[in-house]
Every structure is written in structure tokens, then in C-alpha cells.
Amino acid sequence: MQVATIQDVRDFALAKHSGQVRRHDGRDYIAHLDGVVAILVEHGHKSPDIIAAAFLHDTLEKSDTTMESLIETFGKDVAELVYWLTDMEKESREVRALQAAWRLARAPWNAKLIKLADIIDNGTAIVLYNPDFGPTFLEEKRLQLKMMAEVEGSRLLRLPLFQKAAIVTESASL
Questions:
Q1: How many Cβ atoms from other residues are within 10 Å of residue 162's Cβ?
Q2: Residue 88 lies in a domain
Q3: How far apart are CA 44 and CA 169, in angstroms?
Q4: E strand residue ranges, the chain
Q5: Is there a domain that residue 39 lies in?
Q6: Average of pLDDT values for 136-151?
Q7: How large is the angle between the packed helices 30-42 and 48-56, nearest 10 degrees?
Q8: 28 in helix, strand or coil?
Q9: How far apart are CA 85 and CA 103, in angstroms?
Q10: How many CA atoms lie within 13 A of 148 on its CB side?
């Protein structure tokens, strides 16, 4: 990361998501970002670039943030992780889900770690607060996990963060 501290990154994300709430539980959007970071830290993934990208992972999709501003403010390494985590696909929901799975399967390892924490945080909230949408969302995430595992193999399958994400995505099937 450039010269920004993790607090600077969180403050940037907080400002960019100001006034946004989570669709599923009505909480301020920063609660999701804090949740993703907490899951990563709980699983021992504490590098500044990972934590920074976790706070920023939805800024391109959900705010007026540009890739250029991320590169200038937080550096190329953080911006690249955000890039891999950003859903910019068009088309039908089914095609977008497949494109996202292809992208995430080929993403760098650290982007995959953030995506796993994102799946855990979002999946848990959606199952609790939006059970009608849960099966659709979690089916899409199971596809992402499957394709990531096909690329990474046992390295990913043995990872406790992956195992927890797999459990969360199966909760809609139980």
C-alpha cells in the first residue's frame, strides 16, 4: 500500500458508501466491509494490502470511485485486488454469474481470500434476512467456489476460510 493507513482506507470506504445501507438487513454499508475485514483477520489474513482491498472491494461497483483514483490513492497492488473483485459484467443474471466465476477462478490468491470472506459475510446476512433471494445468491457463490477450487485444488480446499464459505453456501440447500 502507498502511504495510506488502514484507518485512511476505512475512512475512504466509509465516505464512498455514505448513506448506503445493506439491502438485506438495513444496516449501514460499512457494516459489510467491517464484517469482511473481521472474517479475514479471524482467519489470519492481516496483510495491509488484503485489508485495504477488503475495505475497498465494492467501491467501483457502488460509488463514483474510479480505478485511477484507487491506483493514485492506494497503489497498484491494492487497486488490482479490487479490480479482480469488481463485478462489471453485463448480460443476464445467469451469464453474469458465470462470468464472475470465471474471473474469480483466475484471480490472484489474495483476491480469492477476500472473496471468500465476502461470501461468508453476505451469505450469512442473506440467508437470515432475505431467504427468498438466498437460494439464487448462494447457488451463484457455490459456482464461484467450485471454479476457484478447480484452479487452486487442495491448497484452497484445505483452507479454513474456504471451508467456512462452503458451509455458508450450502445453508440454503439444507
A1: 21
A2: yes
A3: 21
A4: none
A5: yes
A6: 97
A7: 150
A8: strand
A9: 9
A10: 31
- Amino acid (1-letter code) at residue 151: V
Count of all residues that appear for the chain in the document = 174
Nearest to 138 by CA among 113, 170, 161, 115: 170
DSSP 3: S
Share the mean pLDDT of the chain: 94
Which pTM does this prediction carry?
0.95
Question: Looking at the 3D structure of the chain, how many domains does it have?
Answer: 1
Q: Is residue 1 part of a domain?
A: no
Q: Tell me 17's DSSP state.
A: T
Listed residue (58, 161, 143, 57) closest to 100, CA to CA: 143
Q: Which domain holds residue 157?
A: 6-170
Mean pLDDT for 19-23 is 94
Cell of 105: 477462478
User: What would the pLDDT profile of 89-121 be if each residue is shown by its tens digit?
Assistant: 889 999 999 999 999 999 999 999 999 999 999
Between 50-59, 123-132, 144-153, the lowest mean confidence (pLDDT) is in: 123-132
Cα-based torsion angle of the residue sequence 115, 157, 169, 114 in order, rounded to the nearest 10 degrees: -10
CATH number at residue 106: 1.10.3210.10
Q: d(Cα 115, Cα 113) in Å, to the nearest integer?
A: 5
Question: Which grid cell is 38?
Answer: 473481521
Amino acid, res. 143: L
Whether 142 maps to a domain, the answer reads: yes
